[in-house]
Design brief:
Layout: E1 16-17, E2 23-24, E3 30-34, H1 40-59, E4 66-69, H2 74-80, H3 88-96, E5 99-102, H4 116-123, E6 128-133, H5 145-148, E7 153-158, E8 168-169, H6 174-186, E9 200-201, H7 207-223, E10 228-233, H8 242-257, E11 260-261, E12 268-271, E13 278-285, H9 286-295, E14 302-305, H10 307-320, E15 330-332, E16 337-340, H11 358-370, H12 374-389, E17 392-393, H13 395-398, E18 399-405, E19 416-423, E20 428-429, H14 432-441
Parallel strand pairs: 3-4, 3-5, 5-16, 7-14, 10-13, 10-14, 17-20
Antiparallel strand pairs: 1-2, 6-7, 6-15, 8-9, 11-12, 12-13, 15-16, 18-19
Helix pairs in contact: 1-11, 1-12, 1-14, 7-8, 9-10, 11-12, 12-14
Bound molecules: NADPH dihydro-nicotinamide-adenine-dinucleotide phosphate (NDP), 2-oxoglutaric acid and magnesium ion.
Catalytic activity: D-threo-isocitrate + NADP(+) = 2-oxoglutarate + CO2 + NADPH
InterPro entries: IsoCit/isopropylmalate_DH_CS, Isocitrate_DH_NADP_dimer_prok, IsoPropMal-DH-like_dom
Protein name: Isocitrate dehydrogenase [NADP]
């Protein structure tokens, strides 16, 4: 295979996919990476250094990663020109080399190019966005430490459907007029409140797309000894999309995992064939879920949800365990996987060597585990946990917010008048690269 701008390292072999979608990983795999826009230039090199250190410590010379840079976003535009934000050869390399990792990419609001991140997921059919949320002791959070410790969830967000399909027409366009006309004349729709000035977006949700995502979440629960899978939806309002997602989820649990109803249902349960432990399959409406995760995080474990809900839920849950500075993820299809942090390009910090590289480092940890390199993955977890426990942290974790309350009379509700940023007690504030060094130091 010859690419135009992508240089294939001389040493290194291709990861391949088996018919059962497991992966064959050689000792020196070629792994594509996208540096990313904004803080991509800060976090991606640190992620590579930490990953290389973990692999070296775990396997010596026996194993190593042959990193292969592929281009997307602003770097691609500079290199390829002609409005090329996501070159075909990048998509080809991500598919052909099977396992890769990317930094964040910018998406303009209200116009301009569609999301490159979403496009990659759709084109490569990476249908599950898997985002684990775990607490590292010592991390400052908005909850009490004892409550944060109870937050241990893995979100499976559907990654190819829902309003992210990008089927929408702007207000006042000829297209939107045609669609509204069709809805009113042929479908008998009367509920569009302001038809003359409405934009329209379409939300496709299929049985096939929902089932494969929920099946992956249920399998994950079985393979990782989890206790429950919660289907999070807004099916009371969007009955045939989000409501159907819930119903299809229960169908998969019953028909493919042998789940039996609890009482009159629809909640159900089945025995994990590996351990004999019970796994409960339940559902919850999304707004209720968002308050319950703060009040009773221990009730939730594996989460399966639609694309937009999953986007909101992943940032909200990340905040509960310290923020999107330590929130990893992976976009996983049948074999092919692209790992990436939950956060975006945070442009105001770009190039300042200031942000937390933890999300990218932990995304690499997920990648190593996916490759079966568990010893190296474990070293990364120990390194991150050790650096945080030693309070060697970047600005986002070092700043603890303290509300100053105005004097108030008994019986009156106190008002927060000011919030000041203070250092987490005893913290050593380090740079982005400094945190990477601390992670390596604590790998043992
Ligand atoms: N998968 C992807 O590539 C994603 C891309 N995006 C894109 O990124 C751009 C910016 O999006 P925006 O909504 O501002 O969200 P971002 O996630 O980029 O940033 C929001 C805030 O989160 C905090 N933050 C983000 N990353 C880190 C980090 N590594 N360490 C510490 N703190 C961090 C910062 O908070 P504070 O200011 O409090 O320090 C930052 O201002 C948009 O174009 C968006 O479309 C967004 C999400 C995902
Ligand atoms: O594509 C984008 O710009 C945003 C993506 C996003 O927010 C996410 O993946 O969580
Ligand atoms: Mg998001």
């Amino acid at each position: 295979m010859v690419y135009d701008k992508i240089q294939i390292p001389a040493k290194g072999e291709r990861i391949t996919v088996n018919p059962d979608f497991s992966v064959n990983v050689p000792d020196h795999p070629l792994v594509p990476f996208v540096e990313g826009d904004g803080i991509g230039i800060d976090v991606t090199p640190v992620m590579r250094r930490v990953t290389d250190a973990a692999v070296r410590k775990a396997y010596g010379d026996k194993r190593s990663i042959a990193w292969m840079e592929v281009y997307a976003g602003e770097k691609a535009l500079k290199l390829y020109g002609s409005n090329t934000w996501l070159p075909d050869e990048t998509l080809d390399a991500l598919r052909r080399y099977v396992v890769s990792i990317k930094g964040p990419l910018t998406t303009p609001v209200g116009g301009g190019i569609r999301s490159l991140n979403v496009t990659m997921r759709q084109v490569l059919d990476l249908y599950a966005c898997v985002r684990p949320i775990r607490f590292f002791p010592g991390t400052p959070t908005p909850l009490k430490e004892s409550e944060s410790e109870l937050t241990d969830m893995v979100v499976f967000r559907e990654n190819t459907e829902d309003i992210y399909a990008g089927i929408e027409w702007p207000a006042d366009s000829a297209e939107v007029k045609k669609v509204i006309n069709f809805l009113q004349r042929e479908m008998g729709v009367t509920q569009i409140r302001f038809p003359a000035s409405s934009a329209i977006g379409i939300k496709p949700v299929s049985r096939e797309g929902s089932e494969r995502l929920i099946r992956k979440a249920l399998k994950y629960a079985v393979e990782n000894d989890r206790r429950s899978v919660s289907l999070v939806h807004k099916g009371n309002i969007m009955k045939y999309t989000e409501g159907a997602f819930r119903n299809w989820g229960y169908d998969v649990a019953r028909h493919e995992f042998g789940a039996q109803p609890i009482g009159d249902g629809p909640w159900c349960r089945f025995r994990n064939p590996r351990t004999g432990q019970e796994i409960v399959v339940k559902d919850v409406i999304a707004d209720n879920f968002l308050q319950q995760i703060l009040l009773r995080p221990e009730d939730y474990d594996v989460i399966a949800t639609l694309n937009l809900n999953g986007d909101y839920i992943s940032d909200a849950l990340a905040a509960q365990v310290g923020g999107i500075g330590i929130a990893p993820g992976g976009n996983i299809g049948d074999g092919v996987a692209v790992f990436e942090a939950t956060h975006g390009t945070a442009p105001k910090y770009a190039g300042k060597n200031q942000v937390n590289p933890g999300s990218m480092i932990l995304s690499a940890e997920m990648m190593l585990r996916y490759m079966g390199w568990t010893e190296a993955a474990d070293l990364i977890i120990r390194g991150v946990a050790g650096a945080i426990a030693a309070r060697t942290v970047t600005y986002d974790l070092a700043r603890a917010r303290t509300a100053i309350t105005a004097p108030h009379k008994p019986g009156e509700h106190p008002k927060a008048t000011e919030e000041v940023a203070r250092l987490m007690p005893g913290a050593t504030l380090v740079s982005c690269s400094g945190f990477g060094e601390a992670v390596v130091k604590h790998m043992q």
